[in-house]
Write the structure tokens for this entry.
Amino acid sequence: MAAKIEHIDHHGQPALHLATAAGARAVVALQGAQVLSWSPPGGGERLYLSPRAVFDGSTPIRGGIPVCFPQFADLGPLTAHGFARTLRWTLATERTGDDFALVSLRLVDDDATRAVWPHGFAAELSVLIEDSRLDLELEIDNTGGEAFDFTAALHTYLGVREVEESRIEGLHGFEYRDKTDANRIRRDSGDVLVIEAETDRVYHDVNRPLLLREYDRSLGINGDGFPDVVVWNPWVERSAAIADLPDDGFRRMLCIEAAVARQPVRLPAGESWWGRQTLVAL
Ligand code: TA6
């Protein structure tokens, strides 16, 4: 049996279901080119999708892997995390082999995007599942006549069994901006990062892979092209204040995001940029 890609309806919205012969699975919504689910062969779900996520085709979907573009968070005048996550992307490529399934989705500028961000662009997100790996690659082309600046992220909501029991390894020694503490710049000094309070950090220039350890499973996380790593957990009070997250939602999720945030990318006319995040179930 070869890998398979099916067009499905997911909570009333169009999506793609990817499956490999070995048993890896993923669901990708056309809205935002957002991966909503991923499980490696023989393993359980590795992403967090809020049970209160709204699927109305225009509200950002809480969970999975939102694509933030052309603005990360509130680093500019656009709505938080930019418009890419609320727009419907189009399917550009679907390919399968014996042991992989690949789709790529595209978003290009139109009157509505130019009204808020006056630039010509083409964004393409490729999603590959192969063996125990999920690979996401975002390519941005400047199709307009002038250079533009952007920030971006793959805002990955990892599913965890219990956030306080999870350990992030690999961030020791890196500088970060702490959004929970007036954006102070600090340096990570712990051997591992354990989430025990609201955490909202942009780690700068992280040039090594990370490991997320849980009781009985681990996940390798690698970024390429994205210089920064964001670690976010809203904890008790913020979780309760977020309407599309259950009050205890923070216990089951941990965002480890591949981002370009500290320094915007300046993309000259006619040029391209790409960034990738790879998750490997261990
Ligand atoms: O990436 C972290 C972050 O920017 C946090 O500050 C937090 O607000 C989160 O993203 C979620 O943002 P959203 O707009 O999806 O509620």
The chain has one domain: 4-281. Residues 60, 73, 80-81, 155, 179, 200, 230, 232, 255, 257 surround 6-O-phosphono-beta-D-tagatofuranose (CB under 6 Å). The helical segments are 111-116, 235-241.
